[in-house]
Design a protein that fits this description.
Elements: H1 2-58, E1 74-78, H2 89-97, E2 104-108, H3 113-122, E3 129-132, E4 148-152, E5 158-163, H4 171-181
Parallel strand pairs: 1-2, 2-3
Antiparallel strand pairs: 1-4, 4-5
Keywords: Membrane, Transmembrane, Transmembrane helix
Transmembrane segments: 7-29
């Protein structure tokens, strides 16, 4: 009788160990799968980001400079189709933390100027100029919520366009890099 109890005990112990090993193996499999999926998502975001930058640079996404050259010598932040203050809190935070926003202008569609003025006050953005223009509207649905920035040289040329995504850009670093490589700042 004692021997049969020992057999049952060791059988149950072996079954529990086997079950725990399966559980641990499944857990590690899921962890690896999550890591791979995360890497794939990051890769896709990076590809989409590069696609947007390439399209800005190639002129597919319009960034027409005014004939008055009103943006010459400024960094131009463009909200082509709309402004979502909840979606852009990260951006507003970065703008408010910039040491100086005197060389930053914002372009929004006419219907959104009032909203941008409110955000300028609420988020303490210290923006010197907010321009209205429909020239920057983007009709492609995949770029509907995109925000981008570029530097407009003193001659009115669009330089260093960059699509803004909260994980991909540090505005302060962008400003420093452009200022360090562009002849307008030398």
């Amino acid at each position: 009788m004692k021997k049969s109890n020992d057999i049952i005990f060791y059988s149950l112990l072996a079954l529990c160990l086997f079950t725990n090993c399966l559980f641990i193996g499944y857990y590690y499999y899921q962890q690896n799968r999550e890591v791979l999926l995360g890497q794939e998502l990051e890769h896709q975001k990076k590809q989409n980001y590069e696609l947007i930058v390439n399209q800005i640079e190639s002129g597919i996404i319009p960034h027409v400079i005014s004939d008055k050259k009103e943006f010459a010598g400024y960094f131009v932040l463009v909200f082509p189709n709309g402004i979502c203050d909840v979606c852009n809190k990260w951006l507003f935070k970065q703008i408010s933390e910039l040491s100086s926003t005197s060389d930053l202008v914002v372009v929004v569609p006419d219907k959104l100027k009032k909203n941008m003025e409110i955000y300028n006050t609420v988020y303490k953005l210290k923006l010197s100029s907010i321009f209205c223009s429909e020239k920057y509207a983007i009709s492609q649905e995949e770029f509907k919520d995109m925000t981008y920035i570029f530097y407009c040289s003193k001659t009115g040329t669009v330089l260093y366009p960059l699509a803004l995504h909260h994980k991909n850009i540090d505005l302060d670093l962008y400003f420093k890099l452009v200022k360090s490589i562009d002849l307008d700042f030398l």
